[in-house]
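Example record

The entry below shows one chain as it appears in the dataset: sequence first, then structure tokens.
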Amino acid sequence: MNPLTAKFRLFVGSSFAPRQKADLYDYICRNYRRRIEFYVSQIIPRDHGDYQDVCQEVMVKIYNHLDGFDPGHSFKAWVYQIVRHQCLDLVKSREEKQRRLRQGDPDLVGGGPATDPEQRVMRQELMERIDRAVSELPPLEREICYLRFSEGLKYREIGQVVGLDVEVVKAKIHALKAGLRRRVGR
């Protein structure tokens, strides 16, 4: 059982719920705040006036709804659903005023840095081409790329977050991989 699941089970079964909830929330802040901020930045640019407010509101919603989380389900998917809904609420409320939102640059290439300087340069160039290609994708596809390749969510979890059937998610990821390979020349 992973540490987070154990903490949730302790929280759910505890008669000291307020203290346990605070401990659990501290754990989530330490381990998820940066991920949440990065995910928010994929939908709302960091320099947008509401970026920090959205991040803070997400953390408040997580805290307020901790007791409603079912530890039998994916915590990551639950968190990303909260983030996504909070971001989409903002985007929808300002849609007519906003120009098309652009995202930052998720790292789609795994592994550690190359040891050979030539390989490092080639890797950096590839990452830049991937970043450019991903930044030109429609928002839903960018979001799916981030959730799959940066966060490592399973197809089912991605489907829960974005509200799509798992088969649709699989098809989109397959098409995204093929399209990105074509665009970056690999």
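Notes for this example: The chain has two domains: 3-94, 117-184. The longest helix spans residues 17-43.
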